[in-house]
Specification:
The protein is α+β, with helices and mostly antiparallel strands. The protein has helices spanning 91-103, 137-146, and strands spanning 12-14, 21-23, 33-39, 45-48, 78-79, 82-88, 109-112, 128-133.
């Protein structure tokens, strides 16, 4: 008879910087504060890592409780461990992208100004954002780019018949129409 060992619950932590509670991991997934310093390339140490790629963020200490990002990801809007991967003014387009990301195993959500989550900037008209967990950002961007044509339009389906197609296909396998 085998005896199963009891599951040991992950230790819970509360971030000293943003107050978020999280379990496991080396640091806060919301703001990027590490529980223990890590080495930088120049020999110094940092207490922060990028919330998207987890690279150490060395140099000056970030102000406030904003999520910390590296230079590569510094322009990406991040909100409570969700990173923006796509924006549009068309809620149907954004919904299709969310559905396609979800079908690829990425936890994607649609956020719009109707939700009252994002502030409205002058000049923005009904911006709809596709958001994914920060740790799924890179994979989601790869999926979106694989379905992007040369003009920057994202399409997961044939414009002629609506049949889904795989990245790299040059013609629709259903109707034969050329794909962007």
């Amino acid at each position: 008879m085998s005896v199963e060992s009891p599951e040991i619950p992950e230790q819970a932590f509360q971030c000293e910087r943003c107050g978020a509670e999280y379990a496991g991991g080396e640091g806060c997934p919301i703001c990027g504060l590490l529980r223990a310093p890590v080495a930088c390339e120049d020999g110094s140490q940092t207490n922060f890592r990028c919330v998207i790629c987890e690279a150490p963020v060395c140099g000056s200490e970030p102000e406030g409780t904003r999520p910390v990002t590296c230079q590569l990801h510094e322009g990406i809007p991040v909100m409570e461990a969700w990173a923006q991967v796509y924006t549009t003014s068309d809620e149907i387009e954004a919904g299709l992208i969310v559905q396609n990301l979800q079908s690829e195993g990425v936890d994607a959500q649609l956020f719009s100004q109707k939700d009252g989550i994002f502030p409205v900037d002058l000049g923005e008209l009904a911006i709809v954002r596709v958001m994914v967990p920060t740790w799924e950002y890179e994979g989601a961007i790869e999926i979106i780019r694989a379905h992007m044509d040369t003009s920057g339009e994202v399409s997961f389906a044939c414009p002629a018949c609506g049949e889904a197609y795989e990245p790299g296909d040059t013609a629709c396998t259903s109707c034969g129409a050329p794909l962007g």
